[in-house]
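User: Assemble these into one structure.

Assistant: Restating your components, then the assembled model:
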Amino acid sequence: MTTVHGYLAMARSEFRLFRREPFSVVFVLAFPLMMMMLLAAVFGNKQSDAGAIQNGMLVWRGVTPANYYTAASVAVIVAALGLMTLPITLTSYRQRGILRRFRASSVPASTLVGAQLTVAFATFVAGTLVMATVARLAYHAMLPQDLLGVVAALLAGTVAFGAIGLLLATVIRTSRSAQGIGLMLFFALWLVSGTGPPRAVLPTGLRDVANVLPLTHLVTAVQNPWFGFGWAGTDLAVLAAYAVAAGVPALWLFRRY
Amino acid sequence: MAVITVDHLRKTYRGVVAVEDLSFDVEAGEIFGILGPNGAGKTTTIECVQGLRHADGGTVRVLGLDPATQAAQLRQRIGSQLQDSSLPGRLRVAESIELFAAFARHPIACEELLARWRLGEQRAQPFDSLSGGQRQRLFIALAFVNSPEVVFLDELTQGLDPQARRATWELIREIRQSGTTVLLVTHFMDEAEHLCDRVAVVDRGRVVALDTPQGLIDGLGLPSVVRFSTSEPDLDWLEKLDVVESMARQGQAVEIRGTGPVLALVASELVAHQIVPLDLRVERPTVEDAFLALTGQDIRG
């Protein structure tokens, strides 16, 4: 029972630390919310825009821009946590000797990673509720049509971006580099994955690149059930593939911290 | 019964030898010290013993377990205060004890540890705001959280003020009373001298001497120094004593080096010559002198 007990204690501890870390709270919760509101302010919330077509694509996927960004920004929370909070936390744990401290006290690597991902998932759910509530009040945006589908997409996103974050934490040595690299990756993905400018306005080459990136698939995986389009099977599968491709080597490298 | 057996341990980092060939045994219930200059391989040695690093050669057994392959089992039964480790900056003292207790099979109550290591007032303080001494006490408390059979202490009193050091030594002695074996790494001579039952002096990855602190000193036959002052000009008769190796004089101050019962013999000879200096005193060789003789260098050098 030590394992479960330890995992719960670690999750509680990581949750406290997350709450006490202003950077995480701001970036992971406030930033996506702010971007959602700014983008909704820029592109508006007119029903007439819902059918807009550019480059042969529905620009807003058949919903209003405010609706579009509400669901897309939930995916941004996941990306921010996976690309920034997770690698920054773990590299600083390594650098400061916290990982050695844990290892010397027989805390398994999987318990630490599991606790981090648990806190991440809880944050996503909370962030989603905040996002949906604010959008509802401000734009009368739709609430998730298929809540279970959204939760499933968040789970897939947690695992995929958790694995990517862990892989970053194993290859990056210092938390300063993790901050730089994480921020760069985050904004690059944010710009091309339909979370910033709509994908329809991107040049074809950039759109093709974005097609293989995980955030694009997470956006679709969240948006489809949110708008009532059903579950995005292919996108969930791509996220699962990312989870395996990044997670297996990451766990193998991280198992001895 | 040996609790720790290290036999021909060897460890290199990318071709640089950290531990050349190191062997020692630690008996149940003793406080065993590893003393050596910086870079002698002390920390590497106890990290291998705890299974935090994998040795390149030799065998290590702790409580009958192989730290390289049975680390998980071993860590349930040992406690460890690591050098250069830390905790998340915003984790509070009591929270961190409770976190580590959750991974222990036989945890000691948080309140008991807070009281024993005088951390009660800091219980709600985050790790980042603790002083060096408070951090050190917290790490020691964490080393004991799982009621360990063997405790590893690496530079135990680093960063503690003299009063706190004495208090810490006292607690370590108390812990030994309960039957816990202690393996202590230090570069403080007085710590080794006051605390350890036996000391292994390590230099360049090898054990150069292993004995009780007094045994180390005695074994080397290091001279005592007797000092006194007198206005008597001729003291040549003192040099004729067998125990006296050399005599130096500067004005009234006399310094005599010698081995064995040099003080008693010099004193009786002085009295016989009706010289009774008020400031007659002796400096016995210390572990530091033994260390210098063994390694040929200053501990901090």
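DSSP finds eleven helices and 13 strands in chain B.
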